[in-house]
């Protein structure tokens, strides 16, 4: 009985630690690297309308606030992906724009410039635009979860060559962590 309990605890510890370890003989990933990769995975899931991956990453109390003030619930977001209300050609972070900021050991934000291009299936209208977003992640018993997102209004005109301006200057403890 005691050995079975120890084996169970060891298995649980290994399972929880697995996402923090990179492939091969590399050092363990930092929290910023884990969050950067998770946010990139989330954006890719949205692009594919992969509601199962979105469901895994989203916090149970997730909320998204759009630039016009519209509030989107977790259930609405997952239903929209499941029903493919939008078919994306692009739903990707612009390279070099992602910044992860850590606030203590259990909270982080990700800011990046997002390129969206696709078709709304309801009326077959096409769209293409860029916007800045900030995603907030919290550390839970189930690992890092995407708890809150806020998107800017659509950007006007073409993006700058770097996709960043004076607002991109680092503040606090941050990392432009490459996705692994």
Largest sheet: 8 strands, mixed
> Percent helix among the residues?
25-40%
Q: Please give the number of β-strands.
A: 8
CATH topology: Nuclear Transport Factor 2, Chain: A
If you compute it from the alpha carbons, what radius of gyration comes out, rounded to the nearest whole angstrom? 18 Å
Please report the first level of CATH classification, the CATH class: Alpha Beta
Q: Give the overall form.
A: globular
* SS-based class: alpha+beta
The proportion of residues in beta strands is 35-45%
Kindly give the count of domains. Answer: 1
User: End-to-end distance, in Å?
Assistant: 40 Å
Describe the structure.
Helix content is 28%, strand content 36%. With 180 residues, the protein is an alpha+beta fold. It has a single domain (25-155), classed as Nuclear Transport Factor 2, Chain: A (Roll). Strands 1, 2, 3, 4, 5, 6, 7 and 8 form an eight-stranded mixed sheet that branches. β1 and β2 (71-73) form a beta hairpin.
Short description:
The protein is of the alpha+beta class and 180 residues long.
